[in-house]
Design the sequence.
């Protein structure tokens, strides 16, 4: 079984029943331990992006669950199906199946969970902030935010510290075996980090990066999901490579030659885009590849096809990193996907909005209500707010 096939089975497992043959293939793959990295990556993507349940889960509860799964502790199967939707964390059960001899269980969240002390978001339309989860090599987790400052952990000979919403790795590179860490942002979160080689990373909401605490081999290899901006420290004898992972899709690789660039690979977007600010990168997926020049963007559809290279709107592509939303004749659905990730809201549509393209700039520090009002001034769209659910209705011309 190939990596692409295991990812397709994981995606199907989370969304629809598997056939007996498919289930047997998945069980065999889990039992073999051959795809443990892919399964863990799928769990992380489900926990820290919006491949997540509609019910609210506190960050502490997410962290505890993730640590339980990654430590491969025995999980109690929950057989209840009395819920409205399948639990999108079902990938966690796949890993758990490796230690449950009776077979693979579909984990479901009970309809009436035990009371948990939670903090209700005072303003459901408040903007996102600097917050993320750090997963260390031993699978222990550390919650990251702007207040958790100082030394956090040591990985081999590498010291990890956090200062005002930015993570820094400093080490001498003497680790014999790479110790892989992951930083993952939830919806409504963003984070910055500096890798041990001095490269600077910015994570947008619902994104992740997996990397060694220090780079020990002949290359510097990291893996990302969601949207990530890189400023890579040039090392001629040690190329920097980025594996771009989107669940259910063939992975893409970006080979870097000392450069600044953005990778956007959300599963719900219509294309995977790599935007080059300066330097040079080569993007490749399967047999397709493209060499980018500064100021250009390479796009490829999630399902396949060839790379399309075109001049990039750098200001729009990097607006999120500068703390802004910037739209230029951008379709409303694309706009609302960005808002949903940053404000951690749900968007539904009452009517056809496919012909509504809007232009504007607004700070990501504003509440969502201010942005919705700005969009309504176009007199093309009207929004109704119900808690964290936003309903968008096109305005019928009189």
Sequence:
């Amino acid at each position: 079984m190939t990596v692409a096939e295991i990812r397709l089975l994981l995606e199907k497992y989370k969304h629809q029943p598997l056939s007996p043959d498919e289930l047997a293939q998945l069980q065999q793959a889990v039992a073999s331990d051959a795809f443990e990295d892919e399964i863990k990556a799928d769990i992380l993507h489900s926990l820290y992006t919006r491949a997540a349940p509609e019910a609210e889960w506190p960050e502490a509860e997410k962290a505890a669950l993730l640590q339980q799964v990654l430590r491969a502790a025995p999980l109690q199967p929950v057989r209840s199906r009395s819920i409205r939707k399948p639990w999108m964390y079902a990938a966690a059960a796949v890993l758990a199946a490796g230690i449950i001899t009776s077979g693979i269980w579909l984990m479901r969240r009970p309809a009436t969970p035990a009371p948990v002390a939670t903090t209700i978001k005072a303003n459901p339309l408040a903007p996102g902030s600097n917050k993320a989860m750090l997963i260390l090599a031993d699978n222990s987790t550390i919650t990251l935010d702007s207040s958790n400052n100082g030394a956090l952990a040591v990985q081999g000979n590498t010291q990890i510290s956090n200062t005002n919403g930015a993570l820094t790795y400093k080490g001498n590179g003497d680790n014999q075996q790479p110790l892989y860490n992951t930083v993952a942002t939830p919806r409504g979160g963003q984070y910055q980090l500096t890798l041990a080689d001095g490269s600077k990373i910015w994570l947008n909401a619902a994104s992740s990066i997996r990397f060694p605490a220090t780079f020990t081999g002949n290359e510097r290899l990291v893996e990302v999901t969601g949207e990530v901006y890189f400023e890579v420290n040039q090392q001629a004898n040690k190329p920097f490579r980025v594996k771009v992972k989107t669940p259910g899709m063939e992975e893409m690789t970006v080979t870097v030659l000392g450069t600044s660039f953005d990778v956007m690979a959300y599963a719900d977007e219509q294309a995977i885009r790599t935007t080059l600010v300066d330097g040079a990168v080569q993007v490749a997926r399967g047999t397709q590849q493209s060499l980018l020049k500064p100021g250009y963007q390479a796009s490829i559809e999630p399902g396949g096809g060839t790379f399309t290279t075109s001049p990039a709107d750098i200001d729009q592509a990097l607006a999120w990193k500068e703390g802004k939303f910037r739209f230029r004749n951008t379709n409303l659905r694309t706009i609302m996907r960005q808002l949903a990730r940053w404000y951690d809201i749900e968007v539904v549509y009452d009517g056809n909005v496919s012909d509504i393209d809007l232009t504007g700039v607004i700070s990501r520090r504003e509440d969502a209500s201010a942005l919705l009002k700005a969009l309504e001034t176009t007199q093309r769209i009207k929004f109704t707010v119900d808690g964290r659910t936003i309903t968008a209705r096109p305005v019928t011309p009189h």
